[in-house]
Design brief:
single chain, 105 residues, mainly beta, Lipocalin, nine-stranded antiparallel sheet, 0% helix
């Protein structure tokens, strides 16, 4: 994540693509629904799993929810590159790339 950071995208709802790679495996990608709020919070929905992301100036706090049950939590550095958010779950050796594709009405 050494790339030059850019400002977060405009708040709102987006269709997106979430790509996850673990260790040296190729990324596995799928469609997601994303809602950005105040440039500091994102809700990313993948089927019945929700990633709740809190974006602080230098850290991201991620909480994964299945319905009302928390199934995982981690902190990470992050960077915005245009409409793409990159972050990682270092203890699990997982890398995430969230691409915002289309802004929804």
């Amino acid at each position: 994540m050494a790339a030059q950071a850019t400002a977060p995208p405009q708040d709102g709802r987006y269709d997106g693509l979430l790509c996850v790679s673990v260790a040296t495996t190729s990324a596995n990608c799928g469609p997601v629904e994303v809602e950005l709020n105040n440039g500091t919070q994102a809700q990313v929905r993948v089927s019945d799993i929700t990633y709740q992301l809190w974006l602080y100036p230098s850290r991201l706090n991620a909480v994964l929810m299945h319905g009302n049950m928390q199934i995982h939590q981690f902190e990470s550095g992050y960077v915005w590159q245009g409409l793409t958010l990159q972050f990682a779950d270092t203890p699990k050796n997982a890398r995430y790339e969230l691409k915002l594709v289309d802004r929804r009405p």
